[in-house]
């Protein structure tokens, strides 16, 4: 599969990234190189193999899901580009 | 003054314990060296002068009160890669998008360093979001290799490696997703250790690829590295992927005896197109291990042939998901101009991320999208299982597996930046280890004709850190680490 401008714009939309004109051509070229490269995996026979999910041999230790931290709201909000009255501010989403 | 910063971390901690030197003197000496050398090397994004000086007094009191008698590195300075959260100190991931981000909590490893009385002296430079192998994708400029400033220190933990090599810190923490601790350690003549997946907590590490990322130590010798690894390891209730064991005692394995140790050398790694000097020193290293009484055997390991492709797919897929949190709303960069919420996301991310990060996120979007998921993402996960099984099988026969850490020594900074995985010098050797969740270290094993250091990779079985430590320590006794001529 080859990435053309249309597929590229769909990917950029999925990734929520606005790409400048100067980056677009290079990105399409680099993505196509990468896709050609990862496509070579198809040579491997994986007929009877289940996909890997977690490090199954590790003895994981779970804990109760209890609240242990009390983060200071003010400090958390201080990292936001825009906030007001204790809330994050975003452009209007409902007309 | 310079002696304070050039002696080993363990030696320095002993001097502090014996009251030959105070923690404040150590910190001041370290800061002096940092300010002298930073204009040359650019190891740090943030130097934590004020915090380090105030911590010095607190740690000194704890030492005087005998609270830290059991801590091997109390009072020693440590540099931390800038993708590990430090409370009230900015954590940028070397990205424009996080250039002003100030975490409200410490990563678990930071808590552990503080509890053990180490002094965090600064946050080090890296490739943006740890995506790269040269530290050149950083928003904060490139870092220089202290062995030769015309060369890269490697990456992505390039700042953590150059800081330790340039004696701007005694030890440091890096992170390793596909070789990002080991490769810069090799390029800078250091010892770098990527622990078993789950041996060290990732809580507070800004994630790149969660099933591959691990935090680990970088140092100028094996003993310092082992001491730091011991401090940061162990179960963390805040990271459910950590192993159940509360702590690990690694220093008891600093033994100069590897008689009878079984060493495997994967044939595909041996056949890689490596530089002549790298090959020569690797063969010499194998001879050294044989002379010390180990059994060395070359074995077939075809299953790793596609590990770079698998790594690319899995790491980019996980990055696509992990980096979706940067939306210009809760924290990080927000674009100045936008018409609606979607534009806030798109423009902020478009302006905030560098080229390589965008490329990887988009490749992640591609392999996860409908129609491609089975062909690429699930295919990669299946091959990952085959790689894990191949390692399991190999470790039924061997205690450790050896390879060169990289195929080449540190390239010049003038070499063209490349996004092509095929051109990467170390991914083949490194990434299969992350895919299988295994521990691995890089230790110095010589220099090339231009005087640049060469690294040797030692891979262990899952939670087999002790075998790596034994082999690395014994090798170091036979072939001590070398130091660069510093400016």
UniProtKB/TrEMBL annotation, chain A:
Residues of the signal peptide: none
Pfam families for the chain: GatC (PF02686)
Phosphoprotein is among the record's keywords: no
EC assignment: 6.3.5.-
Catalytic activity: L-glutamyl-tRNA(Gln) + L-glutamine + ATP + H2O = L-glutaminyl-tRNA(Gln) + L-glutamate + ADP + phosphate + H(+); L-aspartyl-tRNA(Asn) + L-glutamine + ATP + H2O = L-asparaginyl-tRNA(Asn) + L-glutamate + ADP + phosphate + 2 H(+)
Gene3D superfamilies: Glu-tRNAGln amidotransferase C subunit, N-terminal domain
Alphabetical keyword list: ATP-binding, Ligase, Nucleotide-binding, Protein biosynthesis
InterPro entries: Asp/Glu-ADT_sf_sub_c, GatC
SUPFAM superfamilies cross-referenced by the UniProt entry: Glu-tRNAGln amidotransferase C subunit
Domain of life, per lineage: Bacteria
UniProt keyword ATP-binding, yes or no: yes
A molecular function GO annotation: ATP binding
BP term (GO), one: glutaminyl-tRNAGln biosynthesis via transamidation
Subunit structure comment from the entry: Heterotrimer of A, B and C subunits.
Its biological purpose: Allows the formation of correctly charged Asn-tRNA(Asn) or Gln-tRNA(Gln) through the transamidation of misacylated Asp-tRNA(Asn) or Glu-tRNA(Gln) in organisms which lack either or both of asparaginyl-tRNA or glutaminyl-tRNA synthetases. The reaction takes place in the presence of glutamine and ATP through an activated phospho-Asp-tRNA(Asn) or phospho-Glu-tRNA(Gln).
Protein's name in the database: Aspartyl/glutamyl-tRNA(Asn/Gln) amidotransferase subunit C
Gene: gatC
UniProtKB/TrEMBL annotation, chain B:
Record: active site: 81 (charge relay system), 156 (charge relay system), 180 (acyl-ester intermediate)
GO biological process: translation
Keyword Magnesium included in the entry's annotation: no
Keywords: ATP-binding, Ligase, Nucleotide-binding, Protein biosynthesis, Transferase
Pfam families in the cross-refs: Amidase
Enzyme Commission (EC) number: 6.3.5.7
GO (cellular component) term, any one: glutamyl-tRNA(Gln) amidotransferase complex
GO terms for MF: ATP binding; glutaminyl-tRNA synthase (glutamine-hydrolyzing) activity; transferase activity
Source organism superkingdom: Bacteria
InterPro entries xrefs: Amidase, Amidase_CS, Amidase_dom, AS_sf, GatA
Domain called Amidase: residue spans: 25-467
Reaction(s) catalysed (UniProt annotation): L-glutamyl-tRNA(Gln) + L-glutamine + ATP + H2O = L-glutaminyl-tRNA(Gln) + L-glutamate + ADP + phosphate + H(+)
Gene3D superfamilies named among the record's database cross-references: Amidase signature (AS) domain (3.90.1300.10)
Annotated family: Belongs to the amidase family. GatA subfamily.
Subunit structure and binding partners: Heterotrimer of A, B and C subunits.
NCBIfam families per UniProt: gatA
Function noted in UniProt: Allows the formation of correctly charged Gln-tRNA(Gln) through the transamidation of misacylated Glu-tRNA(Gln) in organisms which lack glutaminyl-tRNA synthetase. The reaction takes place in the presence of glutamine and ATP through an activated gamma-phospho-Glu-tRNA(Gln).
Protein name, per record: Glutamyl-tRNA(Gln) amidotransferase subunit A
The organism of origin for this protein: Herbinix hemicellulosilytica
Gene: gatA
